[in-house]
Design brief:
This protein is α/β, with parallel strands linked by helices. It contains nine helices and 14 strands. The structure holds beta-D-glucopyranose (BGC).
Length: about 230
C-alpha cells in the first residue's frame, strides 16, 4: 500500500506484487491543523477502503530519518518533530511500514537508475530528491535554500504563488529555478512531478522529464528493493 501525505491531500494506492496499481488512487483533504492525531484519523479511515495489503510505504512532506519525522514545514513542524510515524503506523496496520520523505519516495518510482538524477515535485511546497546511479542521497531540502529576493525556491514556486501569480508568471519562476539548478547539479535528467506540473506553460529543456503523481507512487513498491 503506497501512501502519499501531502500538504493539501492524502493519497493512497494499492500496488500488486509487480508494482502495478490494483485500484483507483484514493484522495482525501489533509486536515487543518494537520496534527499527527488528525492525520492518523484520516489514514485509518482511508485504509479501511483499501484492498488487503502486506506492507506499507509512506511518503511524508518533511525530513524523515529512520521513520522518525524531523521537520514538516507545510503540516506544522511543531506538531511533528521527533514523531515516530513509522512505528505508530506499524502498530496500527500490524504490517511492515517504511516512511521516507515524499520526494524521495516519488523519486524511487521514476528514476532510470543511471548517472545523476534530480527529482523536483511541485505541489503545496517544493520537494527535491537526488540519486546517483539509482542510490538516494536522502532528505535533500533544496526547497528551503534561498533563490532570489530573499525568497527560497519553495517560496517562489509553491502552490500559493501559483494561485497568486497565475500560470504564466509562475511557469517563468519554475523555469528560472531549473536554470539555476542545472549548472549546479549537472544532472543527467531532472524528473519533474507533483500536481502543479500540469500548469507549466513554458517549454522545458530536453533533459527534463515530467511524471505524474501515480508514476511517483510506484516508488512505494521500489522502495523495498532499495535497502
Ligand atoms: C519539505 C520537504 C518536502 C516538500 C514537498 C517541503 O516544505 O521541507 O521535505 O519534500 O515540502 O512536500
Amino acid at each position: 500500500l503506497c501512501v502519499d501525505i501531502g500538504g493539501t491531500g492524502i493519497k493512497m494506492l494499492a500496488l500488486d506484487g509487480r508494482g502495478r496499481p490494483v485500484n483507483e488512487r484514493a484522495r482525501m483533504l489533509t486536515p487543518n491543523p494537520a496534527t499527527p492525531a488528525a492525520v492518523g484519523k484520516i489514514l485509518r479511515k482511508m485504509i479501511e477502503g483499501q484492498p488487503r495489503f502486506d506492507r506499507v510505504s509512506v511518503g511524508f512532506p518533511g525530513v524523515v530519518v529512520n521513520g522518525v519525522v524531523h521537520t514538516a514545514v507545510n503540516l506544522g513542524t511543531k506538531y511533528w518533530t521527533q514523531f515516530d510515524l513509522q512505528t505508530e503506523l506499524r502498530k496500527a496496520c500490524k504490517r511492515p511500514v517504511r516512511v521516507i520523505n515524499d520526494a524521495d519516495l516519488q523519486g524511487y518510482g521514476v528514476i532510470d537508475g543511471r548517472g545523476v538524477e534530480l527529482v523536483l515535485t511541485l505541489g503545496t511546497g517544493l520537494g527535491s530528491a537526488l540519486f546517483l546511479e539509482g542510490k538516494l542521497v536522502p532528505n535533500l531540502e533544496l526547497g528551503h535554500h534561498p533563490l532570489k529576493k530573499g525568497k527560497t525556491y519553495e517560496e517562489r514556486v509553491c502552490d500559493a504563488e501559483l494561485k497568486r501569480l497565475g500560470k504564466k508568471e509562475w511557469s517563468r519562476r519554475v523555469e528560472e529555478a531549473i536554470e539555476t539548478l542545472e549548472p549546479i547539479f549537472n544532472y543527467d535528467v531532472l524528473h519533474l512531478g507533483g500536481g502543479n506540473t500540469q500548469h507549466i506553460r513554458v517549454k522545458l529543456p530536453k533533459n527534463v522529464k515530467i511524471f505524474t503523481n501515480v508514476d511517483g507512487m510506484m516508488g512505494g513498491f521500489r522502495l523495498w528493493e532499495h535497502d
